[in-house]
Amino acid sequence: MSDQSLADAPDLTVPVPPGPVPSAPSRDQRPEVELSVDGQRVSVPEGSTLLDACRQCGIDTPTLCYVETLTPVNVCRVCVVELEGSRTLVPACSRKAEPGMAIRTDSERVRLSRRMVLEFLASSTDVTQSPELSSYMESYGADPERYGERDAQAESKTQPAKVDNELYVRDYAKCVLCYKCVEACGEDAQNTFAIAVAGRGFEAHIATEFDVSLPESACVYCGNCIGVCPTGALVFKAEHDLRERGEWDASRQESTDTICPYCGVGCTLSVHTQDNQIVKVTSPLDQEVTSGNLCIKGRFGWQFTTVASKAADDTAAEGE
Amino acid sequence: MDLHFTADEPTASEVDAVDAVLGAAESRWHGGQRVDPSEAQTSESGHRTAGQRHLLLPVLHEINGRVGWISRGALNYACKRLEVPPAEAYGVATFYDMFSLEQAPPVVARVCDDIACQAKGAIDLCASLERAMGPAGDGNAGRCGWVRSPCLGQCERAPAVLVTAAGERPWTSVIAPATAQAVEAACSKDSPTDGPQVRESVPQAGQASLQLLHRVGSPSAQSLKEYRADGGLRAWELALDQGSEWVIEQVEKSNLVGRGGAAFPTGRKWRAVAQAGGPKYVVCNADESEPGTFKDRVLMEGDPFGVVEAIMIAAFATASERAYVYVRGEYPDATEGMRSAIAELDSAGLLKRACPIEIRRGAGAYICGEETALFNSIEGFRGEPRNKPPYPTESGLFGRPTLVNNVETLANVLRILPQGGAAYAALGTERSSGPKLFCLSGHVAKPGVYEIPFGATVRELIELAGGVSGTGRLQAVLVGGAAGAFLGPDELDAPFTFEGMRAVGATVGSAVVMPFDDSVDLGGVLLRIAEFFRDESCGQCVPCRVGTVRQEELLERLRSGHTIGTLDHERQLLREVSQVMRDASICGLGHTASSAVDSALERFPIFQGATR
Fold this sequence. Notes:
By secondary structure, chain A is an alpha+beta fold.
């Protein structure tokens, strides 16, 4: 670069504007919207959803495909509520509250739809590792047995788990197609786009391109899909192996929060241990730094703890 | 975007196919050769990538059209060029019936075995084809294979077959009515077989009273010169003269409501989009896929300039910057007619005052007729409906205000402007204004598209089409489409208007009138309808994805007599399945997937006994 061009270069110092530094208005300052939930008047900040309003009233609303950290896709329809003036039920998770709305969360129509959705899912997928779904099934009186057993559903319910790497397992017999993993892999978190929904209708499923194995795909093993899976379809290989051996025991597990030591970002880790072995690592969804997301190192990079303690055991054994 | 690809490479013809849509690759970033070393340090993504995603479906069409299927290497190359993640592109490609992700024969006969064609011998046709050409869907069938297809929109000439041939110059043939010999002959050729003439689909052709079908069969479809000579472009010139506000006022005064099935007031849509800020779009919904419906096909084949003129008026009135015509993939002749009409109007400089008009082809997915699924399809995504609100007039195609109208709806605008909205509104009944197209197929003597002002009864429509054929003894009439309702012989005096149909628990829908004689196994028809919705559900929401499967299973059990528990128990279960689909599904497909079945079970003694 010549001296001439240096002389022509613009001044790079940015003038600081006078006055206080602007900041986003706080949540409380948003105008309020008043609506009625089961006859009860409730006021929520503008932009809130019907689900927010229900929760504010202390009404337990089942959700499956909804999680605070992802864009609502409203596909599971288990959160539907009855909105006065609407021909059909509406999804609470994504419908914005409007002034004067009147919703019912426990009408016969709502209960029937929620029960049917739960029955539909339990009759076509293996929901044994989704305690939340099972407890909702109980409270809504869902009976998945009444549909009988048919080839198509038996096939989808008993397909073998995909074990193609050492870090995590995809057991799509347990998949309820909530789209959360696709969102976490894509635009809402990781921007890797290794998986998408493929096929159509009852044959729709989560897949890599041409269903290639994860090592052949774009997967970077951040495990953020595992973090949002509501049914145990995506699990750590460690958890899968323990369950296969019948040794998985949640009552013997502890969770310890710590900060990931790998880099300077400072992600909170919840390290889940059973018998002093790390079986799973998560991050709290409400954690500011991570929103529940981690990278391959924070999520999976803990084998050395096992190796080290094994080495220590070996040393101790040698000393004896 | 940092994308990861498998090692699979495209063949030369696959590269040619993609390049035919996108132009040759400029650099290695676009899947080409690395020429300039500095390219290793630069990437063009972001805005450019987002701007090209909408070309994914055209690219997949071109690959499938030339090669007959989409290989891993082809998908990789398409994704490199468009910077689309391959997993997403795979998800899109597997959504559409007309794309094959496995090696398939280059020539495929798509044989309609839907309700109208079944009433005219489609089952026997399939059996003959199986004997002659082997099992349906055989990927190793050699040069020619065949597959079963949902309604092809050729119901007036049932049974219908669409032959698609892949190659350097892909071609298609419509064989209707079809015989196994005719299908085999068409498949073994290496050029298209002449199809039936559109004029034959309009038994009233030439009658002076016709307002929407008056040009079908006339030379005006052939060239702009003939179209002008036939009075074409008068509405367009009137619109330019009087201005957009006047146009919208006339559409409002006409009380025209959408002819696609939802019956929304057209003027309200036009007004909302005209008032919205730009950029905005016009979409002509020509994804006519409702079983038994073929009126839009006849309009596009018989009067393509008329349809395009109406789109021009819509774009002018709403100040839209681009218009899209989304034609279903099974309508090659309509697509070609529209394409050449647009090209001719464009080269005559007439689109300048309107806007550029693009054709997009569907690829075999009924759900893409749902307006928001259609937007997703144009944008290069899976055709999954969006949750509403927001409505298209606010946030539609590319997230912008969008006017979306059905073909027949638009065609009415050409009748509204010359006489004024008020005069138009006087035609028909008070609540259902204007001339209307009806699709008559199944057991009628003269099937076809009929035009008559709103107000005629179902009986009058059947008589207009020559009365009940087959055994001559009517068992039931399906009105409105597969998402409509069955009426009994005692309900034929119901007027086929919005209010008249509502009174008998039916809908106008897409104006299907499909009588079945008393030889037809109605239980079988219901099962085919249930199968249709199971196949066409996008799979996004649980009530529809699983509900359509459960509905079909239940009907099968009721039909075979192998029920779980008592008959009453099963019928109660069916009612509950129907209710959750109607109440909790995302879109109209799920809401109406049980309408026809429910209406039939209410009216007819089907599945009453244990075993048939």
